[in-house]
Amino acid sequence: MDLTFTPEEQRFREEVRAFLESSLPAAMRHKVLEGLHVPPADTLEWQRTLHRHGWGGPNWPVEFGGTGWDPVRQFIFEEECAAAGTPRLLPFGLKMVGPVIMRFGNAAQHRRFLPRILSGEDWWCQGYSEPEAGSDLASLRTRADRNGDHYVVNGQKTWITLAQHADWIFCLVRTDWSGKSQAGISFLLIDMRTPGVTVRPITMLDGGHEVNEVWFEDVRVPVENLVGEENKGWTYAKFLLGHERANIAGIGTSKRELERLRRIASVEWKHGRPLVEDPMFAARLAQVEIDLMALEITNLRVLSAEAEKRAPGPEASLLKIKGTEIQQALSELMVQAVGPYALPFRIEALEGGFQGDLVGPEYAAPLAATYCNMRKASIYGGSNEIQKNIITQMILGL
Amino acid sequence: MHFNLTDEQGALRDMVQRFLAQEYAFDARGKILRSADGWSREIWAKLGEMGLLALQVPEEHGGMAPASVETMLTMTAMGKALVVEPYLSSAILGTALVRSLGSKAQREELLPAMAEGTRIAAPAHGEAGARYDLSRVATSARRGGAGFTLDGRKAVVLHASAADLLLVTARTSGEVDDERGISLFAVPRDSPGVKLIAYPTIDGQRGADVTLSGVLLPEGALLGPEGGAFPALSAAWDLGVAALCAEAVGVLQATLDATTEYTRTRKQFGVPIARFQALQHRMADMLMHVEQARSMSYLSWMYASSEDGRERRRRLSAAKVTVGQACRFVGQQAVQLHGGMGVTDELAVSHCFKRLMAIEMSLGDTEHHLERFITESK
User: Fold this and answer.
1) What is the pLDDT of residue B177?
2) CA angle B110, B113, B117 (to 5 degrees)
3) How many domains does chain B have?
4) Are strands B147-158 and B206-218 parallel, antiparallel or unpaired?
5) The complex's ipTM?
6) CB within 8 A of B236, min separation 6: which ones?
7) B109 and B66 part of one domain
8) Which carries the bigger pLDDT value, residue B166 or residue A353?
9) Which chain A residues are within 8 Å of B287, Cβ to Cβ?
10) Do B205 and B236 reside in the same domain of the chain?
């Protein structure tokens, strides 16, 4: 047992840090660190920068153009990226559909789709949830009917994150209605420009346009866009969830946000002294910091099991629950830290380079929106209650 | 970065677990608790034979220190079996104090015997009104004649009756809560002027309040520099915190296991109560507490012997907070999910509950360590 990073891992961390220092544009970094809106152009530019450096696929094996890093190196990379304030890489291609195509797709699909994810040419989105299929995902009803060498897709997907920018959507669709609900699902790749695909925005509680409804009306999808076998989609979806959750604790980002909270609480005042010295606030801050410290070790335990080729298992559910609880606690404490100046809400002030009159401290502007936005964390990716079901069934065996 | 055990460590853990499974089952433990002494010299001797009392003894005195992982594994196994012998008092705290403060002669006299199990040395430090303030010592030691005279009262000294030797902190100079001025003395328990009011503690262990009235000690009873015991005391207490964290992990896991097992077999409304989602989610919450506590037990042993005192205190306090909160939650919920059976003496779960309660309150409770974490983070 050794909880320290090896000299090689330390050197790797230095290498990542040096690269980020020289390659991350200051304007991009500012937006991320201050919690401002990060436009899609920044996300894509950063993906391309990494790709040029050979780091476009931090979690991908070398044979598909990835870095081949082990889970510990991936963790270090994500931690350094978070600390430096890089835009978050899009998970839909890199962490979701990419690994599914690698594992279950054919050689033609490998050649066609994977390089364009790494290069940032294709923006993917995830078509899972439906209005009547949320936590009970397997009850989905979007249908794909085989017609010659095409599937004809009809139905509605919802909560599709950033679909308004997407070139492609990977969808779970129903291809068989006869057996158990999990048994008739297929995994289909659909070009967003296909006639019959409609994207409608959903405005969220923070005023942001992050998610959408996507409608399919007689959308013709070539059969070569089916991944793996027909009616085996549920298996692929479960495989994907394992990958999606591997870094779901968000340790690096929460460490960065904790420091931001500490900075804010050092310059906010209560009873004539810095808020950070107020015993009640200090206790809440310390509690989050301690929870995060424990979760980091728990995360490393899961990663080291993964490094020994044990697939990310139900422990990932624990990381998801505790990780999102910490993210939400941090966003809540930031709002509390600025007091009444959390309330003024001007969407334009959430953009980098806002030139209008400021009310309150500059750091206060996005905090309420972030707090509201972060309520999603315990709902998405399998709600935290669903995660508890997984823990009960898969770990406790109840 | 890895969490694997060496073959030797795995073998040690298996040996301790096997021994306790054979000799320390719930009924056997019950007999030990009801005996006059409240602990077993036989078990103690066997722990000595297996080398477990030597884990924190330096190599030059025949031990294995630092042996962090080995000690952690041993404590976790002992937690699982709810061992009541004076391991924390003598093999951890007492040993740590003697090895860091004792002269070569004192170490040679005490450590090999403590490692064998033939001598037991328990710290007598806490005082009424001091709560968990480590530096608050009112017991006095005055120089005179050929040595020292001790006067004062020590509160809730664990395993005092089991010990041959009490390692008593007393003030040789300074104000009542100064860190400087605290000295450590090896006081034979049967010294004239030493009086014990002995009692069982809520978790089935034994303790005593110790009154020291004009206890005369020779010069050689002083361990370490006069007035300079505090740094060693603080380090020993942190090692003790790590030991408690590891022990807690064993108790917590046993408590969770007992609860899942019970809910699988107990039927109400025609089904095992484990089918009810309200109970399932409670047990998922318990599991998360257990795993976070386990992570912090690992972390605590990484820092338990750290030279950087500030970082050591900060990390150990973080660990004790996480573990203490797990002790509260898991203990209370385990009793709740056992229903009426949980509040009887018959099942292991109530014994686990009481040990978890005691661990949370030992060597600084959750509030104390949250406060210390904040102080050391500034």
Assistant:
1) 96
2) 130
3) 3
4) antiparallel
5) 0.96
6) B92, B93, B96, B97, B100, B123
7) yes
8) B166
9) 318, 391, 395-396
10) no
Token look-up 């946000």 returns A257
In this prediction, the residues of chain A whose per-residue pLDDT falls under 50 are none
Burial of A273 (0-12, 13-18, 19+ CB in 10 A): exposed
B58 Cα to chain A: minimum distance (Å): 21
Cβ-based neighbours of A73, under 8 Å, separated by 6 or more: A9, A12, A67
CA distances from B235 to A17, A319, B110, B310 (A): 35, 33, 19, 11
Q: Which of B275, B292, B318 sits opposite A298 (nearest CB)?
A: B292
**Tens digits of per-residue pLDDT, A223-273?**
999 999 999 999 999 888 777 665 789 999 999 999 999 999 999 999 999
Task: Identify which of B260, B295, B374 has the shortest CB distance to residue A298.
Answer: B295
B110 shares its domain with B147: no
Which class would CATH give A248-395?
mainly alpha
B18 falls within a domain = yes
pLDDT at B105 over 70: yes
Secondary element (H or E) of residue A176: none
Residues 6+ apart with CB under 8 A from A10: none
Last residue of a domain, one of B84, B119, B154: B119
Closest residue in A to B262 (Cα–Cα): A398
Q: What is the mean pLDDT of residues B82-90?
A: 98
Q: Which residue has the higher pLDDT, A240 or B262?
A: B262
> At which of B192, B227, B262 does a domain end?
B227
Ranges of beta strands (E only) in A17-76 are none
Which of B101, B213, B221, B112 is closest to B165 using CA atoms? B221
Q: How far apart are the CA of A328 and the nearest CA of chain B, in angstroms?
A: 17
Average pLDDT for chain B: 97
Of A282, A290, A396, the CB nearest to B318: A290
Task: Give me the residue spans of the domains in chain A.
Answer: 7-89, 124-233, 248-395
Q: What is the pTM of this model?
A: 0.95
For residue B219, what is the domain's CATH number?
A: 2.40.110.10
Domain carrying residue B368: 231-377
CA-angle at A293, arms to A287 and A297, nearest 5°: 145
pLDDT tens-digit map of B18-28: 999 999 999 99
pLDDT of residue A359: 87
- Any idea which fold A124-233 has? Butyryl-CoA Dehydrogenase, subunit A; domain 2 (2.40.110)
